[in-house]
């Protein structure tokens, strides 16, 4: 049996009871070393298999092999396992197995929700989530989504905004969105949301600071009704008050 | 102090530790009666103010007034308070107060995440969330978002798909999406996700059954790469396997 466990943004308090229970009930814990380090106190008596970034396929194959041997395995994702996490890959690999393994997705709080809570209430209306990583998605697809999402006036949550290898992507993304997102649209930037070293910033779209952002940053761009009030972003739901 | 608490989809196991702690630490619990009934065992010793649907503004004003009197108040939302929940409204009302109240958003698992976990891994790539309720959003805005989101090939999560007063909206939404969503695109339907009476269905886009859906249903429509494997929907992230 394989449990795909989303541990939420990082601090214990944001985990679901189901995630804690699933980890407690497993024999083996498999995950990227950064996420493993966030739950070390929970897994002291467990077999732990941790590896590096970009070793996702190996990690999921190991989990399937262990499950075949009768082990209960927890594969750890940050946030929610079903949102840019490991759930899909395990299901994909399992389709190719003759001896299918049982898989259960354990729900967690994803980064957009965590960052939104820090920023006030920026995602109170229709929203979309876009990853700027073009490791596995052609950049022209990402550009098209940025353009159409802006035209649709969605609140836009940007995952994986900026790595060392692609420091210009975020600036390009803002140039595309600028066709429809006004200069004063609120933008929330949350680094390490829900972790010990969390930092948050609120700026206007035209004053976006790209240098603040890295791969551990969530960026939330408001819609036409969003506004800044003190140190919070509010996107009205539409109530007449 | 006002805690905007998202209790997740319903069952206790999907709540975050922070949500349970916030409720325990509050003097008064304010919420829509259906959500209050889901946490009754947690709030036995609390003052409880519950009211009907469409009384959201009253509910949030009551919370602000109680906070002014020095009470710790928890305002309960289903799912996450920041996603079509009560967080925005309390912040909006608080901007008009002379004596501003402190507000804290307590993160929860929203319905799209909960339904995705039931369906397998349908939201592994860029996605958007659209509410079909036109009580507070003009229908032409909703139509525009459905069209552009489909054109962008987002995985689309539909909130509030169908009420008695607007039984045709969902059918109209599917007609709009049909311009870009292929006939065989997987569609997941989860009623009462994460509650005792959960039901789930997976169909092809062309075989959508609108009668299955009500206001407690989450609908997830895949992207061009999504496929059905057994009783699960998988949206590939893009790994070469």
Automatic annotation (TrEMBL), chains A, B:
Domain Tetrapyrrole methylase: residue ranges: 1-201
Swiss-Prot/TrEMBL keywords: Cobalamin biosynthesis, Methyltransferase, S-adenosyl-L-methionine, Transferase
InterPro entries hit by this protein: 4pyrrol_Mease, 4pyrrol_Methylase_sf, 4pyrrole_Mease_sub1, 4pyrrole_Mease_sub2, Cbl_synth_CobJ/CibH_dom, Precorrin_MeTrfase
Pathway: Cofactor biosynthesis; adenosylcobalamin biosynthesis
Gene Ontology MF: a single term: precorrin-3B C17-methyltransferase activity
Residues in the signal sequence: none
Enzyme Commission number: 2.1.1.131
Any one GO biological process: methylation
Protein name: Precorrin-3B C(17)-methyltransferase
Source organism: Peptostreptococcus canis
Native organism taxonomy: Bacteria, Bacillati, Bacillota, Clostridia, Peptostreptococcales
């Amino acid at each position: 049996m394989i449990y795909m466990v989303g541990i939420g943004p990082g601090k214990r308090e944001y985990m679901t009871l189901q995630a804690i229970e699933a980890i407690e009930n497993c024999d083996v814990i498999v995950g990227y070393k950064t996420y493993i380090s966030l739950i070390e106190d929970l897994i002291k008596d467990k077999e732990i298999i941790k590896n590096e970034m970009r070793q996702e396929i190996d990690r999921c194959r190991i989990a399937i092999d262990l499950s075949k041997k009768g082990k209960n395995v927890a594969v750890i994702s940050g946030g929610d396992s079903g949102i840019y996490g490991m759930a899909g890959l395990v299901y994909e690999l399992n389709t190719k197995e003759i001896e299918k393994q049982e898989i259960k997705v354990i729900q967690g709080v994803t980064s957009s929700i965590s960052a939104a809570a820090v920023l006030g209430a920026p995602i109170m209306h229709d929203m979309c989530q876009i990853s700027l990583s073009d490791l596995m998605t052609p950049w022209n697809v990402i550009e098209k989504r940025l353009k159409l999402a802006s035209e649709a006036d969605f609140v836009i949550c940007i995952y994986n905004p900026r790595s060392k290898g692609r420091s210009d992507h975020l600036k390009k993304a803002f140039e595309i969105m600028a066709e429809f997102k006004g200069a004063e649209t609120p933008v929330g930037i949350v680094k390490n949301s829900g972790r010990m070293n969390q930092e948050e910033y609120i700026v206007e779209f035209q004053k976006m600071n790209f240098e603040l952002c890295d791969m551990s940053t969530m960026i939330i761009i408001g819609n036409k009704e969003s506004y800044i009030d003190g140190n919070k972003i509010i996107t009205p739901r539409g109530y007449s008050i």
